[in-house]
Design goal:
This protein is mainly alpha-helical. Helices cover about 75% and strands about 0% of the residues. The chain has a two-stranded antiparallel ribbon. Helix 1 (about 5-35) runs antiparallel to helix 5 (about 90-120) and helix 5 packs antiparallel against helix 6. The radius of gyration is 20 Å and the shape is globular.
């Protein structure tokens, strides 16, 4: 794997840290600004919505900019947002800083996926995407716990300054290690938007919303579930989240490895297994050992879908993958928000702290149904048009076309 992927992974590490560390620092931020914790929760919601809106917006703005330069500009925006958050004199300014940082999120992963895929041979594309996303998963193992610890002991503002420094390292790494890539020729907004007329692209994005949403239906409420049902102490939740992060790292790497070999089978197995494990979590959540093992499995199976789904979008939007890739990152955050809302509804309805697990299982099962439909449509198309070209490898300009064939899964995979 090219060293340039390390620079992308560092940027991903910083982005992953700033996205999730706020959840552990809400009490400190709320106390500092004199607002309630639910009000401080807008710092989470605002970031997620910024990703959803910023992914297509920043990608469209960057269509005429060389990809390396655009990645550097996005990291600059990320740095500015975190510095603004760290120095914010009022809650409204802090919220603005979060939104500014979030605008870089979707486009960075979307464009970064295209760049990563273009740096390697066609049969290694999903693995390259997974390598970049390793930065995001490792952030949940190292960055978030350490950032939370620093914020609780030395002040939350220092945490965001450290995250800004991570952004600087990512920016320097991209400038030094990522090769100069020619601006895609003939790229037009209309051309990029045309990808959304492809039913396979839309199915892959719907799988992203539902599949990863299944993970967050459970994980959003992991603290009350583990303390009230499993009997863990409040201080143990951090270590459970570390276990979840370790599962994410493993699942991401496994998903990237097998998606390059058999993309659709990888999706069938990971989504089906995720639905089963989430359903079983309603039982295993009642014991400490069972809960800990299940949390690892949820992280692993959830993130095993990420490289396959992201690559699936890249392949099916061949020739104009950048916007579709970025919007798919927004789809992950849309799934997170939807799942958290649905999980809150079933808890508020009095169905118990483990009820969100059933919501997650239903979402993952729905994603599996869509995956089966997608595979069936692809086989039918391949049978009707044996020479039908389904993708260019998803590198947005380089790489030879991939001819639809059952052995190739027609196009490897996704987050």
């Amino acid at each position: 794997m090219p060293l340039a992927l390390l620079a992308l992974a560092i940027g991903a590490f910083g982005i992953g840290t700033t996205e999730f560390v706020i959840m552990g620092l809400l009490p400190e931020v709320a106390a500092d600004y004199g607002v309630t914790i639910p009000t401080a929760g807008f710092l989470v919601t605002g970031y997620a919505l910024g990703v959803v809106l910023g992914a297509p917006l920043m990608t469209v703005l960057g269509t005429r900019v060389p990809r390396k330069r655009m990645l550097m500009l996005l990291m600059g925006l990320f740095i500015a947002g975190n510095v603004l958050s760290a120095l914010a004199p009022a809650f409204g300014v802090m919220l603005a800083g979060r939104v500014v940082a979030s605008l870089a999120h979707g486009a960075f992963f979307g464009i970064g996926s295209v760049v990563a895929a273009g740096l390697v041979a066609p049969e290694k594309k999903a693995g390259a995407i997974a390598m970049m996303f390793t930065g995001l998963t490792v952030a949940n193992v190292v960055g978030v716990p350490l950032g939370t610890l620093v914020g609780q002991t030395a002040g939350w503002r220092l945490t965001f300054l450290i995250v800004a420094v991570l952004g600087v390292l990512g920016l320097l790494g991209i400038a030094k290690l990522v090769p100069e890539l020619p601006r895609p020729e003939g790229v037009r907004i209309r051309h990029e938007l045309a990808a959304f007329r492809n039913v396979q692209v839309l199915l892959a994005m719907a799988m992203t919303v539902l599949g990863f949403g299944g993970v967050f239906a459970a994980i959003t409420y992991i603290t009350p579930m583990m303390t009230n049902v499993a009997g863990f102490a409040d201080t143990s939740v951090t270590w459970l989240l570390v276990l979840f992060g370790l599962g994410m790292v493993a699942g991401n790497l496994i998903g990237g490895r097998f998606a390059d070999r058999a993309l659709m089978p990888m999706l069938y197995v990971s989504l089906g297994s995720l639905a089963v494990v989430l359903a079983v979590f309603t039982l295993t959540a009642h014991t400490k050992a069972g809960a800990a093992v299940t949390v690892v499995l949820i992280g692993a199976l959830g993130f095993a879908t990420v490289p396959p789904l992201q690559k699936r979008v890249l392949d099916q939007a061949a020739g104009a993958p950048t916007l579709a890739s970025a919007v798919n990152i927004g789809a992950f955050n849309l799934g997170n928000a939807l799942a958290a809302w649905l999980g809150g509804l079933v808890i508020a309805a009095g169905l118990g702290w483990t009820a969100p697990n059933w919501v997650g299982a239903a979402l993952a099962a729905s994603a599996l149904v869509l995956a089966v439909v997608s595979g069936a449509l692809e086989r039918r198309t391949a049978g009707t048009h044996p020479r039908y070209v389904v993708g260019s490898g998803g590198n947005g300009g380089g790489g030879s076309p991939a001819v639809a064939a059952p052995a190739a899964g027609a196009a490897p995979a996704h987050h």
